[in-house]
Give the backbone structure.
Amino acid sequence: MFVWFFCRNGSEWLNNRRLMNKLLLNGNCNWMNDNIEKYTRKCTTQWSEDIDKSGKGFVEINDLERQLYRWSINVLCSIMFGESFDRIDSNPRLEAKLSEFTDNVHKIFTSTTRLMSFPPKLAEALNLKRWTDFEENVDLVLQLGNGIVDEFLKESPCDDGLVLKMKEVDMSLDMIKRIFVDLIIAAGDTTAFSSQWLIYLLSKNEDIQTKVREEIHSSNNWMENPYIKGLIRETLRLYPVAPFIGRYLASDAVIGNYKIDKNSLVLLSLYTSGRDENHFPDAEKVLPERWIRNENGELTLVHKAHGTLPFALGGRSCIGRKIALNQMQALVAMMTSNFNVKYCAPYDVDITLRLVAVPDKPILLRLEKI
Ligand code: HEM
């Protein structure tokens, strides 16, 4: 879900987007890595403990979607509220509020998916249940999200995290709340589903897992490791959670052999383009080394790098790109250094389109302690 739901108009969006670019995309964003690592480690530690408790040396995971969804929300809240969020474990009331909020954000995904098969304006005019469900759901999420920001600020006024940085650039509390809800809605599904695909590819390719492990042992900074970054680029190339990007043309244009009028809606299929042999030789293969440059600085296994644009490009591109990439890097590094990741369902999984591109069947995993 990729809109600033709660920005009232274009100039309000532009002002806030400029401020948020400074905080989340431009310059050094390493400040958020501690939060990302802390909550990713929490996830892998929990799996380790489950293995110990089982007494079998492994654990099977059949609710990966739910677990990764909660992980991506936790990471974002930790980036947002800094140390205040770390105290959530000792506050069952806040923990319950966050769970309710998370569940309802997840429902937006379902209610929006139901609107995809019917013109939303008509659904609104006819007051259909799929429209009223969506409306009620969004209102509730906004109300709960506002409440959560208030609670965190009341419990312990933020002296770190993104909230502090937003206050420092003079953002109003009302705008901070609206942006918080927007970021959560946009981050939850996208990162969780992309990470599911990432784990799926790892679990189906033992040689890639072994290579990732070697890379982690031989490098002291896995956040900058080109092989791990290449694996993530391959995941997003083959399984772009946003498989289409839409743009209204600002002026008449010729695209390919077609003359297209100003204001036409143009859809780019990232899925098709990412799997096009003209852009990527052996396009269906997962080749993380594709993205490692040779001594002349060339990418020999990539004909057109812009054939994959998982976060789009330009002024409306993804504001959470750095958060998502660092989060996925942390997940690969911590999972492969702690576990053998095995795929254990009796079927292969394919990609299907709901609001975003998702696995058509659950991904079942077995984690064995190394
Ligand atoms: C792998 C994970 C992610 C993918 C593949 C992804 C992809 C995208 C894409 C393709 C767009 C642009 C859509 C368009 O232009 O039509 C977008 C926009 C957006 N994304 Fe992400 N995203 C991811 C994670 C995140 C995260 C973690 C956040 C929040 C921290 C986030 C927040 C947003 C927001 C707010 C927008 C709208 C930006 C604007 O219109 O100014 N995304 N995302």
About this structure: The chain has a mean pLDDT of 90. The pocket of protoporphyrin IX containing FE is lined by residues 2, 4, 17, 76, 182-183, 186-187, 190-191, 194, 241-242, 245-246, 310-312, 316-320, 323-324 (CB under 6 Å). The CA atoms of residues 290 and 300 lie 7 Å apart. Residues 173-204 form the longest helix (32 residues).
